[in-house]
Amino acid sequence: MSILSLTNVSKRFGNFTAVDNISFELEPYTINGFLGPNGAGKTTTIKMICGILKPTSGSIILNSIDVVREPEKTRRSIGYMSQTFSLYSDLTVEENLRFFASLYNLSGEEISKRISELLEMFGLREYRDTLTAELPSGIRQRVSLSSAILHSPSVLILDEPTSGVDPFFRIEFFKDIKEYISQYKATVLLSTHFMNEAEYCDRILLFNRGRIILNGNPDNLIQDFSQKLSDIKTNKRASLEEIFIRLTEE
Fold it and tell me: Which of 48, 53, 144, 223 is deepest in the core (most CB within 10 A)?
């Protein structure tokens, strides 16, 4: 059973079609990558899933709830982390987490318990009294992730979460994501431009000009499309990046 289902979803702004009749399903406890150039429709799709934008047509079902008709009911199930650093630089790590926890209407006891769990899970205890402005970029991303999952969402949306983060912390970040999925049985939707990040995904959806032109497991996609690329003549296995470039140019 899918946790998220989009059926024939379109979004038009006047004469411009940002998302053009897309359909897909996300399975529970998986990492799903949204790839595509700027303007391909990824962000518009994410906003519709979050209930921020209403689709022009089509249906979106999250946890058996109709997002279009009852967006408020679904928002408690969603955690969102953007590419921009959204925490307050003049507050400590713990103060930031307590503030965001209050927005989710958690009780005082729940807040303390969740903060303690997340500080332990992501190795943040030594930073709990540090101003976020003074944190290394990788640690800031861990705090941002913690703030997005305080309410234990079943769907976690990551919008280019590792932009500006060095490669080491990028690897550590995905270890954190897998740990979260393992412990809390969540499903992750990841928007990224990094091909090496896409290879962490269980499924990839490639967007171009408002449509999904590729949808599948990374290893299977590489195997299926390698024979269609010119470098097959050299017996070289195609990379996701080569597939991405070739398909978005067509």
Answer: 48
| SS3 readout for 129-161 | CCEHHHCCHHHHHHHHHHHHCCCCCCEEEEECC
Q: Is residue 93 within 8 Å of residue 135, measured between CB atoms?
A: yes
Quick: pLDDT tens for 39-60.
889 999 999 999 999 999 999 9
Evaluate whether 183 touches 175 at the Cβ level (below 8 Å).
no
- The chain-wide mean pLDDT, for the chain, equals 85
* Whole-number Cα distances in Å, 168 to 48, 52, 139, 232: 33, 33, 12, 32
What's the CA gap between 130 and 134, in Å, rounded?
Answer: 7
Phi-psi sector, 218: left (phi>0), alpha (psi -120 to 50), beta: alpha
Residue from 2, 25, 33 nearest 218 by CA:
33
pLDDT, tens only, 98-141: 999 988 888 888 899 999 999 998 899 999 999 999 998 888 88
Strand 155-159 vs strand 57-62: parallel, antiparallel, or unpaired?
unpaired
Residue 67 corresponds to which amino acid? V
What is the sign of the dihedral through the CA atoms of 99, 105, 111 and 114? negative
Q: What are the distances in angstroms from CA 44 to CA 17, 29, 155, 209, 230?
A: 11, 23, 17, 12, 33
Cα separation of 170 and 239, whole Å? 20
Tokens of 5: 């289902």
